[in-house]
Amino acid sequence: MRTPHVVVVMGVAGTGKTTIGPLLADRLGVPYAEGDDFHPRANIDKMSAGTPLQDDDRWPWLDAIGAWAHGRAGLGGVVSSSALKRSYRDRLRAAAPDVMFVHLTGDRALIEERMGHRQGHFMPTALLDSQFATLQPLEADERGVAVDVAGSPEEITARAVAALDGLDAAAPPAEAGPSPR
User: In the chain, N or C: fewer CB atoms in 10 Å?
Assistant: First the structure.
């Protein structure tokens, strides 16, 4: 029996973190936490107005997610967080050293189209360019996998589970599914 891991489902807005996260948690038999719920109201107001967050805005948010992940160590869990920069992931790992990442990747046009169909979300499509500009994909020494978001939520989740199952602690990030490029 494997020890449940804490998994951070990461990626730019519109990749499906809020859709895939709960499905992945269900498949892994662990609880899910919505990363957006950890944002202070000021961050949500900024993003709703189309203003990108600065690092100083993100640190308390990342610390709250890190505290949740730390509390789930050995128990397992899935949490969503854009975690776009290496420094953000480093901050999460500082709080929860064994955290693993599932980086949802995909074609910009597909992601923009999906964002256009979302209802009731505070992140406008206009911020997608800033998200892609900020994105630093997982590096070879980071424990995680990249999973393409083409296909149904169930297909994406199945690819994520398979990639996590095959993840070795010393292995570099693996690309699961069709290449996003």
Answer: N
